[in-house]
Specification:
The chain has 324 residues and is α/β, with parallel strands linked by helices. It has helices at 2-10, 14-25, 31-38, 58-71, 94-98, 126-136, 171-184, 198-211, 233-248, 252-283, 285-295, 301-310, 312-323, and strands spanning 46-51, 76-82, 108-114, 140-144, 161-166, 187-190, 222-224. It has 3 domains: 1-40, no CATH class; 42-250, Rossmann fold (3-Layer(aba) Sandwich); 260-323, no CATH class.
Length: 324
């Protein structure tokens, strides 16, 4: 079944794409096989992350980006990450409603995803879904995340260019988020720039960037926009394209993709080993006893971990479990 779905995906079958995304989101046993099958076919699409606090107008900006790209005959995939519904655990479909004018366009594919408790603004599977859209043939994949802050750096591990969207009212919040913002952003957009305080926020961001530039090869621009009026959006897209050109004309793009693959490699190993370890805890009485002592407070986690890792017999059984 998986081989057939992947074959149809590569042939441009949208139903196969939707089915494969669902399988990836469920994080079932099929996922490694799916990703291995599409891996030779990825790397052509350009991934753009759009992040910022709630209410910054990210969905409106994404909507305008889609229109801009489609007018230039670019195909677009959109991953709209919504807060997890407290009732169903699924995605709230607000973003898809706001972007509904593009649903009839075969050159656009929009998928909402729930954060599912992720602390980094992206669900763990978002990067895999982006790869599916890349393999499907989308020229540009737009990834809209839930929020932004010092801990929300996941988007950097997925996107080639990261756009941070702020609004004038976010001026005070910028102070608490500043370290994370400066690390995340390739482009800043002060949206709803017709509101009071917009010019002040632009100046503050420019001054901060001048004091601590992020990169030596790229000066992070700070742009003002009014996405709901389609003002300034073309300038933002021009900077995204410029950033992509600068990245591709140097070794930066290759280096970033290499870092992303390295991170994905270790994360995949870590995830699979954690799953096997949890399974072993349930089956192995000795390892289970360590966990029970930690849970009851009779042994601290650090000493317990050191004892487990030093126990050759226990580690041998774990390696045998991993090999099964």
């Amino acid at each position: 079944m998986i081989d057939d779905l992947v074959r149809r995906l590569l042939a441009g079958d949208q139903r196969a794409l939707a089915r494969l995304i669902t399988l990836v989101e469920r994080e079932g046993p099929e996922v490694p096989g799916i990703m291995a099958a599409i891996y030779p076919h990825i790397g052509k699409g350009y991934l753009v992350g759009i992040t910022g606090p709630p209410g910054a107008g990210k969905s409106t900006i994404v909507d305008r980006f889609i229109a801009y790209l489609r007018a230039r005959q670019k195909t677009v995939g959109v991953i709209a990450v919504d807060p997890t519904s407290p009732f169903t655990g699924g995605a709230v479909l607000g973003d898809r409603i706001r972007m509904q004018q593009h649903f009839g366009d075969p050159g656009v594919y929009i998928r909402s995803m729930a954060t599912r408790g992720s602390h980094g603004g992206l669900p763990r599977t978002a990067g895999q879904v982006a790869k599916l859209l890349d393999a499907y043939g989308k020229d540009i994949v737009l990834i809209e995340t839930v929020g932004v802050g010092q801990t929300e750096l996941d988007i950097m591990e997925v996107a080639d260019t990261v756009v941070v969207v702020l609004v004038p009212e976010a001026g005070d919040a910028v102070q608490t988020m500043k370290a994370g913002l400066m690390e995340i952003a390739d482009i800043f957009v002060v949206n709803k720039a017709d509101r009071e305080g917009a010019d002040s926020l632009v100046r503050e961001l420019v001054a901060t960037l001048e004091l601590s530039p992020k990169q030596d090869y790229w000066s992070v621009p700070v742009l003002a926009a009014q996405a709901h009026k389609n003002v300034g959006v073309d300038e933002v897209m021009a900077q995204i394209e410029k950033h992509g050109e600068v990245m591709r004309s140097s070794s930066r793009f290759t280096e970033k993709r290499q870092r992303q693959r390295r991170k994905e490699f270790f994360q995949t190993i870590e995830q699979r080993m954690e799953e096997r370890l949890q399974d072993m805890v349930e089956r192995d009485g000795q390892l289970g006893s360590y966990l029970a002592r930690v849970e009851k407070g009779g042994l601290d986690p650090y000493s317990a971990a050191a004892e487990v890792l030093a126990n050759k017999t226990l580690m041998t059984r774990w390696l045998e479990t991993l090999a099964e």
